[in-house]
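ok so heres the complex, two chains, lmk if somethin looks off
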Amino acid sequence: MLGEIAAALWAELLKVRRSLAPWVTAAAFTVAGLVGGFFMFVLQDPERARSLGLLGAKAQFAGGTADWAGYFAFMAQIAAVGGLLVFGLVIIWLFGREFSDRTAKDLLALPTARSAVVVAKLIVAAGWCLLLTAQLIVLSLLLGAILGLPDWSADTALRGLGTVVATTLLTVALATTYGLAASIGRGYLAAVGVMFVSLFTAQVIAALGFGAWFPWSVPSLLSGVAGPDQAGPGPLSIAGVVVVGAVASAATVIWWEHADHDH
Amino acid sequence: MSTPVITVRDVSKHYGQVVAVDNVTLDVQPGEVYALLGLNGAGKTTLIRMLLGMVRPTTGSLEVTGQGVGDRSVWSQVGYLVESPSAYPELTVRENLEVVRRLRKVDDRSCVDDAIDLFGLRPYVGRRARALSLGNVQRLGLAKAFLHRPSLLLLDEPVNSLDPAGVVEVRDLLVNLARDHGVTVFLSSHRLAEVARVATRIGVLHQGRLVDEFDADALASRVRTSLEVGARDIGRAAWALREAGFEARDPAGPVPAGSRVLVLEDIRALEHPELVAAALVRAGEPPTRIAVVEEDLETYFLRLVTSAADLVREAPRAR
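and the predicted structre for the whole thing:
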């Protein structure tokens, strides 16, 4: 089975390398990182923030304070909210393209198991999303250093980066549901619909104060987007996200193995 | 008789109230080129997908190379092309084949170049699939199907997008694979004239049912032959022929505008058209034209499925 996953991984990585999709997602996260740096730049100088009016108000809402802790919190929020969108699109592309390019049928009667193909796609998705987060972190560290943000310490960096990575992992786990939707829906459209419904619902439920009970709101809570007064998600909430990711991944494997592939 | 390469037993596939495949039973012997013939929507693709384990039958069983289609190991001996051929558009021809080689666990890297040469893809080897013509995408699909030198090829409409030269090429290739390499070919098509040139056995699928199955050699004897007789006064010619003991009728199908034609189908007229001519001359109505006409294959096919449709309507459906 490992050999089959390795072969499927090779094929998936080749398809990714030859496609524009990695560049598009990298560009999206570069813009997000630059916006974060700009907010910090604005927050550093209250006079400048006031002169910018609405933008200044938004920067206050998004980042809080112009220091390293505030900057790390902003990165985590990008990974939570922007991540669900971009990571979701990554997984939807990996699965949905097989149907829109009509290549799925070529993966169904091979000596390589269909489950190996699905596992390879999930591994590539996770790696891709982690690389995007790494890119965000490197860019943000660079911009933070250029801006000379105060209050750097190893503890702040470890805590902040830990939150960013944890938020990314939770977001990736949730994005697997879109891979399942792209498979069952045999293309991009249904999965994009599911993604937007879950994003919208997560915002509403979090605003109502029940975010800890709704897995799609949990990464946002962990990133601190609800503000410093709101408690972060507990172990049960985190476990809920892990269960959603595990169930969606298993369901995707089962669907590819056992569904009727009749078109 | 040797063990069949394909065994289909009482297979049906229902989608709710829709019966896509209805109680089909067939065998395909090693080295045969079996052509499954049917109109669009007859159930050909569904049957091929069931043979490939992509669709589960509602009832019945299928075996490929002696194994159930649920057994994954069987696919190393099977190559396939289902519906329209497809390829990863951003990958080159070589990369598309390399993906298949790895997923098919073929260690011999030279099989990629062999397939490229065999299907005439050498000039396009570095071209991305999105830039290929439809015909070359079809060639690439066939190359993917044959890359690992399977003992069984399942091909759904394999010459659909090919130009006439490509059609001849693929036809010769399939005949050659079956005759010289013992490869069994199971293909579907809606073009009888095309499959008649390549198949050794033909099955006709209509509305999900296998309505006829015969050796391709027997096709000639199934096609209707008739004698067409032209005359200036068609009524008088018909009377003269009846007097001479021939049964003549007006053609059922369309005839060219202005033509005056009678059709005779009895064996005596077909074997002795000179007697027909003599009878007309004696009656003072000499023929303007006498020709033995063979029903074309498409007409035969349509006649077959039309009568099969009547049978399907009359027979109780197996549910």
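quick notes: The interface with chain B takes residues 3-4, 7-8, 10-11, 14-15, 18-19, 101-103, 105-113, 117, 260-262 of chain A (CB under 8 Å). thats all i got rn
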